[in-house]
Design a protein that fits this description.
about 170 residues, alpha+beta, NADH Oxidase, four-stranded antiparallel β-sheet, 5 helices, about 15% strand, globular, binds flavin mononucleotide
Amino acid sequence: MELSQVINSRRSVRQYKSQPVEDEKIWEIIEAGQRAPTSRNSQNWYCILLRNPQILNQLEEAFAKQQWIVRAPAIMVVCGTNNRTMMCGQAANPIDCSIALTLMMLKATELGLGTCWLGMFDAGKIRELLDIPAADMIVAVTPLGYAGEEPQERPRKDLAEFVRYID
Ligand SMILES: Cc1cc2nc3c(=O)[nH]c(=O)nc-3n(C[C@H](O)[C@H](O)[C@H](O)COP(=O)(O)O)c2cc1C
């Protein structure tokens, strides 16, 4: 698949088949994250991959009304360990983790898998259940699996609204 095709075909998938995700595909996805740029090349992020149905069920309470999440065959939790603030005033952690997860989501798309970036989760409950150290920032979560639906493309603003020219 060409890059533009991968970018254009990615969708937020909210319904998954129970079919498990192959280990080789998971490694390919993580390898895409490994290639991500990070501030000072710190690479201070990691992901937790959850596949055990019992653990997935325990996570239900962390997702409030989004119970469909725990019905995916796998969930990826992306955490950052770089609590540095960059000179520009922004925190490195969410940026580094977001770039890595974006690349992983695109790789997943290329491999025929669905994902959905999640911001609506109870980080405290996830931290407690997965025993994530207090110093690590839980930045994002995505389910991972074969799509059980074909989501339509969501509307986008006009291209011109995304750019401001200063010539
Ligand atoms: C930071 C962020 C947080 C999001 N949180 C959620 C969420 O909690 N639940 C959900 O169903 N979708 C969530 N989404 C997915 C967006 O709703 C989705 O990307 C948007 O509607 C565009 O659709 P598309 O991804 O299919 O192009 C989130 C996306 C981002 C980038």
